Amino acid sequence: MLQFLLFITCYINLGAWSPWTTAYPDHVKEIKGNTLLFKSGKSLIYNDKKEKTTQELLDSPDIEDQLHYTYNQGVAKKNTDAGRIRNDDFFKEIYGKSAADVQANLTTVTWCPTLVNQKIQFSKVNGASNALIKVSNELDQHPEWKKYLSNIGGTFNWRVISGTTRLSAHSFGITIDINVAYSNYWQWDCGCKNEDAVLGYKNKIPMGIVAIFEKHGFIWGGRWKHYDTMHFEYRPEFFVP
Ligand SMILES: [Zn+2]
Prior knowledge:
Helix content is 27%, strand content 14%. It is of the alpha+beta class. The chain has one domain. The strands form three sheets. A three-stranded antiparallel sheet has the order 1-2-3. A three-stranded antiparallel sheet has the order 6-8-7. A two-stranded antiparallel ribbon has the order 4-5. Strand 1 (28-32) and strand 2 form a beta hairpin. It is globular, with a radius of gyration of 18 Å. 33% of the residues are buried. Bound molecules: zinc ion. Zinc ion is lined by residues 170, 175, 177, 228, 231. Residues 170, 175, 177, 228, 231 line the site of zinc ion.
């Protein structure tokens, strides 16, 4: 009965609450009707009510489409692409509209100071760099994972995703690629860029590393059907209870 009442209460309050206001509290004001309103005054269409193919979800997502797939923690592999669907205008509004804008919001993080001690750049917006520091401090206690954490593949890089016109999450300074030498990427394995290609699955990254990133709000590209196992991306909206 209590659970039922809680459910009803949450349901009634849905107008005010959304994962977006919880995950981006400094930027997202509210979802009102069919619009996401930012505190800056900018607004974006929340739900365009269009039925989309997998490719259309990637190419022209509204805000709601970004949560089309649920991010499944605790399984080695799940055959969806939760987090790969990104509305560029949403991330531009949060982290910066151009390379220069994003760059102005970057701070230097000393990655795994004891094990690796590499200086990397990360966005300080919305708690992203603070979350990365927490990940780094925990991973730094695990010398057995040093080879995966050394020689960081990259963080900030304003660029499109290989084979597409869509901006990479690296453009916003919220993403880290760990050691490329121990990573797998679907395009390397299939020798293709075709989203519809029949894909296998490969991963060498220990799940303990993944668990620490996820604990602090990062999704892992190794959970994607289109896998990218070096790739960790700060996406707190997927961890809102
Ligand atoms: Zn990446």
